[in-house]
Amino acid sequence: MATLLPFPSPPTAATTPAEPVLRVHGVRKAFEGREVLRGVDWQVPAGRVIGLLGRNGAGKTTLLRCLLGLAPIDAGAIELFGAPMTEPGGERLHRVGFVPQNFELFPWMKVRAYLDFTAAFYARWNHALAARLLQEWELDPKQKIGRLSQGQRQKLAIVRAIAPEPDLLVLDEPVASLDPQARRAFMAELLALMRGPGKTVIFSTHITADLERADADIALLRDGHIQFTRPLAELKARLSHAVLNRPAGWPTAPALPGVIKSRIAGASLHLLLEDVPAERLHQLAKDEDASLRIEMPTLEDLFVELA
Amino acid sequence: MRAIAQLWLLPSRQMPLLGVLAHLLWLTAIGCLVWITPHADGAALGAGVLAMGSWFWHLGLATTLRGACQPETFLLPAFRRRLAAFGLLDAVTWVGLPALLALALGVPHVPLGGALLLLAAVMGFAMGVERWVSLLFWPLLVLAGWMPGLAAAIVQDALHSPLTLPLLLLLALLLLRLALHPMLRVVDRPADTSPLEGLSLGRSASADTAPRRSALGRRFEGWFDAIAQQAMERALARYRERPSAARRRTLVRRLLLPHDNAAAIGLRITVMAVFATLYVVVALHRKHFNATVVGAYAVLIALARFPQIGRGMQRMRPNLADLYLTLAPATRAEYQQTLADALLVLVPIGTVTALAYTVLGIVLTHAAQPGLMLLVTLVVATGGGLVALAVHLIGPQNTVGRQLVNAAVLIGTMATYWAGVWLVGALGYVFGGGLLALLTLGFGLGTWLAAQREYRRRAPLFDAPLA
Question: What PANTHER family does this protein map onto (chain A) (predicted)?
Answer without folding.
Answer: ABC TRANSPORTER ATP-BINDING PROTEIN ALBC-RELATED
